[in-house]
Structures are given as C-alpha cells and as structure tokens.
C-alpha cells in the first residue's frame, strides 16, 4: 500500500459516506415527524459531555475537510499540474496536514 | 523522401500534451491535398520536424471541418524527411520530443478524430463534473458568510448532483454485468431523487441547511 493509493480510496470512501449521510438526512426530513430544532433540543436534554460533543463535531468535519482538500488536489491534477511522483507525495502530505488542522479548527467553532 | 505510415493508435487526445513550437515560418503546403475538398481530413508531415509542424498546421487549417486533437511524441530525427499520411486528422496540437535526435523513426500519434468519437457526451460529462465540484467548493464559504435560501437551495442541488455523479462512478467501477448495472443505476437515480426532494423539503418546511448546520454546531 502506498500513500497515494490509500488517499485515493479514502477520498472515495469519505465521498460515499457523506453522500449516504446527506441522503439519510434528506430521507429523514421527509419521513420523521417534527422539526429539526426539536431533535436538537432532545440531544441537548441528554447532557452529552463536552468532550463527546467535540469528538462528534470532529467526526463530522474530518471526512468533509479531507474530501475537500483532496478534491482540490484532484482538480489540480485535472489541470495537468503536480503529476511528478515527488509532487504527488508532497501534495498528499499537505492535504493530510490541512485536513487535521481544519478539522480541529472547525470542531472548535 | 516520403514515408507513409499506417494509421496510428486511436486514443483519446491527450489534452495536456499539446504544445506547438514555431521554429520556422510556414512553408508552402504544395503537398497538401485538401484542395480535393471535403469531407476527408488528412495530415501530412513534410520535411523536417520544424517544417512539419507548420506544414501540418497549415494543412490542417485548410481542411478541418471537424476538430480533432493530436499529440505527437518522439518524432524522428531531422536528417530524415518524413511524410506521414493519415486519414483522420484535422486541427491538431503537436508535441515533438526534445530528444528526437536520439530516437529513431517512431511516431506515436494519439488522436481523437471526431468522426470516430460518436458523441462528446462523455467529455462534456467530465467537464460538468469538475464545474459542479468547483461550484460546490465556492458554496462552502458562501454558506458560512451568506446563509439563506439562495445558498440553501444551491447546496441542495450541488450536493445532490455531485453525490449522484460520484456514486455513479462507483457503480461504474464496481458493478459488472448489464442487468446489475441497470439495476444499480436505477436505484441510484431513486436515491438521488429522494435526496433532492428531502433537502428541498427541509429548506422549505424547516430551518434550511445553513441554519441547521449553524444550530447543530451551537450544541
């Protein structure tokens, strides 16, 4: 397994996961009773510890940021840039660093 | 000093490889037989590599009712005059290898002759996928800075289409067999339709996507 290989399948995996998540959300909107704020109130009533709330936000942000940054990497390839093997690895590492940093930042918001 | 070669491989044009180097003024295209008129296309390489590139373009200019793309790699040394006759080229871009001197006569022409391509549907689809991706990328900061119905419905549309086409690629890659593929595609269309309906319903009857994310994050 190489880094580019792994990052490629993770790009697909995060894409599929988020897509299914969005579909589940849309389906729920059609099927479940009540409004969105009611469900949030319910979660608030559970008094979930802050660390768990942060972890949840991180878990949501991570696939989005990974897919977004790596998506930009894909668009660069589509423009013909960054095909040399060292560049592929460098841009890959950059994507991973940006992913972690932005996930941490977004989860803290 | 003419050398004709049989048709080169028919591969989709390599877009990123097209670069033309004008090193000599265009020579007269006496050998260009496009005076015969349409609807044939041809390509001729006359003389040395330098002359060739320009003659080629000159020829192509006068007989190219159909666009095509060619990238030419690893051209022959300048000491040999080559005339390459090929039946299916028009407007083209040429790349000549910088190390031509070391390489023997070895022309690889990659073309995407439109007459054989059938339709540009696949190419347009590819471009549309990238366009939607870029659009969706712009929607992310827009959702944060300008939340509201415009961004909500744009997100609903862009997310659905981006997801639909993405899952479509997954289906194409992993689902084999005519019937299975049709089944999976139908299921995907159903899923995307329900998704879009659900998101629009949420935008209309509930708080909307931007507000929902903002409220979720305030938990």
TrEMBL record, chain A:
It is found in: Membrane. InterPro entries: SQR/QFR_C/D, Succ_DH_cyt_bsu_CS, Succ_DH_cytb556, SuccDH_FuR_B_TM-su. Pathway: Carbohydrate metabolism; tricarboxylic acid cycle. The chain crosses the membrane at residues 15-36, 48-67, 88-108. It is a multi-pass membrane protein. SUPFAM superfamilies: Fumarate reductase respiratory complex transmembrane subunits. Keywords: Heme, Iron, Membrane, Metal-binding, Transmembrane, Transmembrane helix. Its main location: membrane. PANTHER family: SUCCINATE DEHYDROGENASE CYTOCHROME B560 SUBUNIT, SUCCINATE DEHYDROGENASE CYTOCHROME B560 SUBUNIT, MITOCHONDRIAL. Membrane-anchoring subunit of succinate dehydrogenase (SDH) that is involved in complex II of the mitochondrial electron transport chain and is responsible for transferring electrons from succinate to ubiquinone (coenzyme Q). SDH also oxidizes malate to the non-canonical enol form of oxaloacetate, enol-oxaloacetate. Enol-oxaloacetate, which is a potent inhibitor of the succinate dehydrogenase activity, is further isomerized into keto-oxaloacetate. Component of complex II composed of four subunits: the flavoprotein (FP) SDHA, iron-sulfur protein (IP) SDHB, and a cytochrome b560 composed of SDHC and SDHD. This is Succinate dehydrogenase cytochrome b560 subunit, mitochondrial. It comes from Gekko japonicus (Schlegel's Japanese gecko).
Automatic annotation (TrEMBL), chain B:
This is Succinate dehydrogenase [ubiquinone] cytochrome b small subunit. Keywords: Electron transport, Heme, Iron, Membrane, Metal-binding, Mitochondrion, Mitochondrion inner membrane, Transit peptide, Transmembrane, Transmembrane helix, Transport, Tricarboxylic acid cycle. The gene is SDHD. InterPro entries: CybS, SQR/QFR_C/D. The keyword Transport applies. Component of complex II composed of four subunits: the flavoprotein (FP) SDHA, iron-sulfur protein (IP) SDHB, and a cytochrome b560 composed of SDHC and SDHD. Residues 1-33 are annotated as: Disordered. Belongs to the CybS family. SUPFAM superfamilies: Fumarate reductase respiratory complex transmembrane subunits. It comes from the Eukaryota. Membrane-anchoring subunit of succinate dehydrogenase (SDH) that is involved in complex II of the mitochondrial electron transport chain and is responsible for transferring electrons from succinate to ubiquinone (coenzyme Q). SDH also oxidizes malate to the non-canonical enol form of oxaloacetate, enol-oxaloacetate. Enol-oxaloacetate, which is a potent inhibitor of the succinate dehydrogenase activity, is further isomerized into keto-oxaloacetate. Pathway: Carbohydrate metabolism; tricarboxylic acid cycle. The lineage of its organism: Eukaryota, Metazoa, Chordata, Craniata, Vertebrata. It is found in: Mitochondrion inner membrane. It comes from Gekko japonicus (Schlegel's Japanese gecko).
